[in-house]
């Protein structure tokens, strides 16, 4: 294997142009079922690797072996990348070289059994009852008399839906009007891998969605607005993840990530006695192992209650 003369590649300074040798454009097209953010992450990860490899004289996937991949992950560690970032980049490499193998581009997969650092386990943050009430009812930093504005109707509906259905932010932003059935209190959600599921929503969420559709959405629509989109931003475009983050910054009394509402939804269901497989279905997880993290959150909360209330605890 050709030596690698330069381990000083500055992150973010990309002058890579996709060539036929790596076939990154074709690989990217094969990721059609993933979200735009996931596709962008895969592409960025692979461009980082191919640029690094080409500086060492490796310019095609057939020339990559397992040792080179291990050296690349070690290089990332020296650059103080987080373990979670390295693990994600390793997953991108495994996906890419698996695709190359299936396409017959390579005869053996150099990424098979490629190990990466295990990210530190971080339990998801769950909103307390007071925080949740403040966020959904707008008691913090919001004048109730002003919440008849179209943007307030939108914010109310979006936040209620994130919590009522445990939606991912990308799922919320991708919703169309036709996905919402207020009479049946059901929303059809398209999740990862283009998998569809139906989530139930409660009465308050239905009421908030109804007010948005009747009063808020027509007022925020523009001639150039996408007619199918459920939610619009201030410019009349489809609501995006950054718009949702800004929405939360306005409404939450403490810094809150949009995903916290999904975590809170799952934990509250389990605390209320819901079966783990039911929660898995509602969240759209393909694996029960992904859902099991919420059992740890729930147990921690139960222990806290037990220790603070039991006379001999």
Tell me, what's the shape?
globular
Number of helices: 13
- CATH architecture grouping of the largest domain: Orthogonal Bundle
Under CATH, the topology of the largest domain can be stated as: hpI Integrase, Chain A
Blueprint of the fold:
Layout lengths: L23 H6 L6 H20 L10 H13 L4 H21 L25 H9 L12 H16 L3 H6 L5 E2 L4 E5 L5 E5 L2 H18 L20 H11 L7 H13 L4 H8 L4 H4 L1 H17 L4
Antiparallel strand pairs: 1-2, 2-3
Description:
By secondary structure, this protein is mostly helical. The chain has 2 domains: 1-120, Tyrosine recombinase, N-terminal domain (DNA polymerase, domain 1, Orthogonal Bundle); 129-258, hpI Integrase, Chain A, CATH 1.10.443. It is built from 13 helices and 3 strands, in the order αααααααβββαααααα. The chain has helices at residues 24-29, 36-55, 66-78, 83-103, 129-137, 150-165, 169-174, 203-220, 241-251, 259-271, 276-283, 288-291, 293-309, and strands at 180-181, 186-190, 196-200. The chain has a 3-stranded antiparallel beta sheet with strand order 1-2-3. A hairpin with a 4-residue loop joins strand 1 and strand 2 (186-190). The N and C termini lie far apart (62 Å). The relative contact order is 0.09. The model is unreliable at 1-19 (pLDDT under 50).
